[in-house]
Structures are given as C-alpha cells and as structure tokens.
Design a protein that fits this description.
Low-confidence stretches of chain A: 1-6, 215-219
Oligomer: homodimer
Order of helices and strands of chain A: EHEHHEHEEEHHEHH
Distance between the termini of chain A: 13 Å
Number of helices of chain A: 8
Structural class of chain A: alpha/beta
Largest sheet of chain A: 5 strands, parallel
Largest interface: A-B, 35 and 35 residues
Strand content of chain A: 15-25%
C-alpha cells in the first residue's frame, strides 16, 4: 500500500452557493465543483444557501464575542474554520455577492474564529488569519464584462474576496474566475466554463496539488 | 406670503438605517439625520431595517422584470424611486454594508425602476439612472481607520456607494462620511460627529441648498 494513492489525502472542502434560481448557471458551477471534489475523494460540505433558507441577518445577540450561536450558524462556523478549502459560487450583485452570501460572511467568519487582531507594535492593530483553509476559490457570474468591471469600479469583487475576506482570514492561495457576460453566453460557452471550473478544482485539490503542498504527505 | 419661507420646499427624504443593536451609535446618527430633516420641514421616510425585520433575500420570483412584488418591497421601491434624497446609515462590515442593507439594495433598486441599460452605440450598453434623488448621503461607522481602509483596500465603501450604487442610479451629488475608529471613540468625539451629521444634512437639504438647486423655486 505504498504509492500514489497514499498521496490522495481526504480533505474537507466547503462549497457555498448563493443564487435565488435553482436552475441557474451558478448551480451548474457549484455542482461541477462538488462532483469534481468528490471524484478526487474529498469530503464536501455543500450549502445552497437559498435552498436551505439561510438567514443572513446578523443579530444583536451575536455581537458578543462569546455569544451562544444558533445551531445552524455554529455548524457553519465549525465547517468554515476547519475546511481545507473554501469555494464560493455566486452572481455579481452591485459588484459584491448577493445579500444572502454577504450575511454568511457576516455571521460565520466571526472574530476570534476566522481572524483576530493583535497589537502591531506601533499603536495600531494587525489582523491574524485563523482559518485552516489553504485555498480559497471564487466562481462568479456577471453581465458586466470583466474589463468594464475593472475600468469602471476597479473590480470590487476581487478586492472583496482576495484582500478583505481571504486576506483577513489568512487564506494564502486565492483563485477567482469571473464568467461574463453570462446573459448572452451560448450553451457552448457555458460548457467551456464548466470545464474551466473542473480544471481549476482539480489543479488545486487534486493529487498534483497535494504533492506540492507542505504538510501533505503519506505520513 | 412672499419670502424666504416659500423657498422651503418640502422634500421627501429616505433615511435607511442598518445596525443590529438598537442602542448603537448608528441609531444616534440616523436619529440626528431624521430630526434635522424634520426641523427643516421635510417629510422623512425612515426605516430601521433590523427593527422592521426587513428580509434581505432576493427571491427567484423577483428575477422577472414585471414581477409582482411583496407589498413591503413595493413600498420601498416607490419611496426609493420618488425620494428627493437618500440617506444611508450603517457600520462597515467586511468593507461593505451589512447584509440586511445589501439586500435592501438588491431587492429595492430594481432594473427598470432605479436604472436601465441602453445601447451605447458601440455594441455595448450604458446605464441610465432613474432615481429622482439629487443627493445621496452615507454615514458609516468603522473600526479600521480611514487611511488604513484606503491603503489596504482602496476604500471599497466609497466605490460601492459613489460609483456602483449612486453612479448607476443617476444620483449626481454624493456625500459620504466614515466615522472611525468608533470602538475607541469618546463621548465627546461622538457628539462632534453628530454635529457633523446635522451640519451635512442642513447643508444639502436646508434653504441654502434649495436656493442653489435648479428647479427649486417659489413657483
């Protein structure tokens, strides 16, 4: 039992989907990511937030650091903190994720669990990321072409995920792909995009990536 | 009955507040804005989204352009489209508004009512803003100092409100003030910040502003 299979460490990977329409292309993206991870032998924690009726409203009770969380939020926190990878799938709404996913971030990536602050020695504070995930992936759809999103606004989703969320929480490898414009895309284009999703997930969670990753070994 | 009073045109101004804690400084900011507007003789449409139990989750049914909206959303749409001014008060969550306010934007600022797209003559599309508001104001609190928010992230809230939301919806005058760091602020500092709120609201909705504004006259 020595060989390549020993390198195929089972990882827990969270896939979080946020789109109101169950027949959306976002659902196809998420399904592709989930199936690719499962084929690689990983354990997937999948959540279709809209289908699950996730409540994105952060409550006053949750403001306290030691708050007793509702069970469904506590479960999300445990998964998010322990996942080896986090994959988010969502449409671009106003150059940010839909509210239901914003609320997932608000409620689940809690101070003291996903990040903390420590003195920076110069009278300020610096963030220390606490998530275990080494890879964060974002697949988003949009109708604004990528070059216009960059030209007009500076690509706020890139800033949001790469710098603000994954940056603060200490996720070192961030992969984001913006599929746009989705509204005028052909079936062939969408098929090609799903192949891109599969390839990207394989590249970051497949045996080759695990062989490269520090701390992932037959031991 | 000719004189200064005739210049005091009654305006409808929306004030939208999003903070989970009813005792928050955000509530004091919103109260100051509402009272200042009322003292100026305006009609205020005030919503404490959290207290009202606003549901920020955009539904599949609402994706259709001609969707029949839930009554509370339809009312928000009418107010937002007809207000002469829009004022938002919220804390900085992950360099964007809290989910409950993101969802207000998702559900209320609908295509065909708040903005529309038209061909730009070069094969693309350009946005046409449809809101009546001539002034958009944002008062947000944060714990990250303003200079760090700019240095690290490029001040995403500024981009979000000025360019993405008010820009797309055609609100020409945008005023934003970031009160930070709020966590270490003294009562004196907070009092001074509330004076700033009052002064800014007076400057943009008071008689002097109305005298400057085109289309606002005794006729």
């Amino acid at each position: 039992m020595v060989g390549a299979t020993l390198w195929r460490k089972v990882m827990n990977v969270s896939v979080i989907l946020a789109h109101p329409n169950p027949g959306s292309f976002n659902h196809a993206i998420a399904r592709t990511a989930v199936e690719t991870l499962q084929r690689l032998g990983h354990e997937v924690w999948f959540h279709d937030l809209q289908a699950e009726g996730f409540d994105p409203v952060y409550t006053a009770a949750e403001l306290a650091r030691e708050a007793v969380l509702p069970p469904e939020i506590a479960r999300h926190v445990e998964e998010a903190c322990n996942a080896a990878g986090l994959i988010f799938v969502h449409p671009n709404y106003w150059s940010r994720p839909p509210a239901i996913l914003c609320g997932w971030v608000d409620r689940v990536l809690r101070p003291g669990r996903a990040y903390r602050f420590e003195p920076d020695g110069r009278g300020g504070a610096r963030a220390v990321g606490l998530l275990r995930a080494r890879v964060g992936m974002v697949f988003n759809t949009a109708n604004t072409p990528q070059e216009k999103e960059e030209e007009w606004y500076g690509d706020p989703l890139e800033v949001h995920w790469r710098k603000v969320v994954f940056g603060l929480c200490g996720v070192p490898v961030v992969v984001r792909r913006n599929f746009s414009p989705v509204i005028t895309s052909t079936p062939e284009q969408r098929c090609a995009w799903l192949v891109e999703v599969r390839t990207a997930v394989e590249a970051h969670f497949g045996p080759a990536a695990q062989a490269r990753a520090p701390g992932v070994s037959p031991a």
